[in-house]
Amino acid sequence: MTETEAERVATQQADLRRLELIGLLRTHLAGVLDDARTVWDPSPHAPGLAGRLAQRLGGSGGLVAFRGHLAMDPGEGYRLLRQRFESAGYTPTLHREGEWEVVTAIPAVFGQSEVKRAWVNLLLFAVTFLTTTVMGALLEQSELLVQQGLALFLQRPWLLLSGIPTALTIMGVLGLHELAHYVVARRHKLDSSLPYFIPVPFGFGTFGAIIRMRTPWENRNALFDVGVAGPIAGIVVALPLFFLGLLTSRALPPVPDSMALGTPLLLGWMEDLVYLIRGIPRQYELYISAWAFAAWFGIVVSGFNLMPIGQLDGGHVAYALFGKYTRYLSGAVLIAIAVMAIVLWGGWFAWLAFTFLSGWVHPPPLNMLEPLSKGRVALGIGVLILTVLIFTPVPFPTL
């Protein structure tokens, strides 16, 4: 047998296997897509994971797809298809092209894996608690450090304990944020890692925490729930702590060379309430402690993270609300960030870079046809309003 003949035989065998697979998958479409027609050349421009695989596998040789009209509710139909397809080692995607509903079979099965190597998460948690405590102590004892330098902690090492409230605050806000993502993701049967804290020897002692998502979103409801859970959990902790920090802050006449903090609308209203409660003269300033500063930082970063763009939590919420039209909103936000970076605060360049690196266009879920529930739509609108209330265009006005 020549090489050409061998290639022809291999092609024939591959075509035969594909025909057998199409026949098998067509039986799984019964009752869901009864008028299904085979799509022999799935578009490499199909949305989401299907489109990326089509590009990688080369069009007609890569994926199996069908088009037709759904015979039942998109949510119920997709769950039935997913159960059937997984028995054959495939996962379906569902989207609409014109007047057709399209089901594409992805040659993979996604599921939850067991949590492994939790000791890594615990070790990073412990190291981050140490770094945030040390950096919190440096912030808390800043006045004495100006006078005595780092020798202060050699002479009175117990002063390091003064950084614990700051450590608890920053790790509480950021840790609960990621833990909420994790818990909700597991409830939706998404494969997610435990939170990984990132310790650093400067700033607040951490770059925050992250979780790794190993499976695609099934629908908009899952996308919304996981995206919104983190910011809400973090803000619910940070707002009361910041308000308590204002109530216990020193009220003094303006101090030269002090660092001003940006005040979003919601925090400005809280500050006005504290001035009223405590009877503080308006010409006085509130000088917050290090742990209250950490709460402020958590709120400000939450406002950044809720911007409706890309892979940020706000991007998840926006895509769940607006679907494919989110790209226009994200484009407008991207332009606004660029303008703010040039005009208001140079730190926006870092967020601009992060947005481009992580992707400013949000990928769709596996099932694009199941609508977001009415309760989630109402909550999503509330989150957009909250984003406006806590958004801080210039976090550090004096820098």
Helix/strand layout:
Blueprint: H1 3-28, E1 37-39, H2 48-57, E2 64-68, H3 74-86, E3 91-97, E4 100-106, H4 118-140, H5 142-148, H6 151-155, H7 164-187, E5 196-199, E6 206-210, H8 220-247, E7 250-252, H9 265-278, E8 285-287, H10 290-305, H11 313-322, H12 326-343, H13 348-358, H14 374-390
Antiparallel strand pairs: 1-2, 2-4, 3-4, 5-6, 7-8
Summed up:
The protein is an alpha+beta fold. The chain is built from 14 helices and 8 strands.
Quick check: average pLDDT? 85
N- and C-termini, Cα separation:
76 Å
Q: Spans of 5+ residues with little confidence (pLDDT < 50)?
A: 57-61
Spatially, the strands of the biggest sheet line up as 1-2-4-3
Number of strands: 8
User: Radius of gyration in whole Å, from Cα?
Assistant: 26 Å
The largest sheet is: 4 strands, antiparallel
Number of domains: 2
Class based on secondary structure composition and strand pairing: alpha+beta
Gross morphology is elongated
- Measured as a percent range, the helix fraction is 55-70%
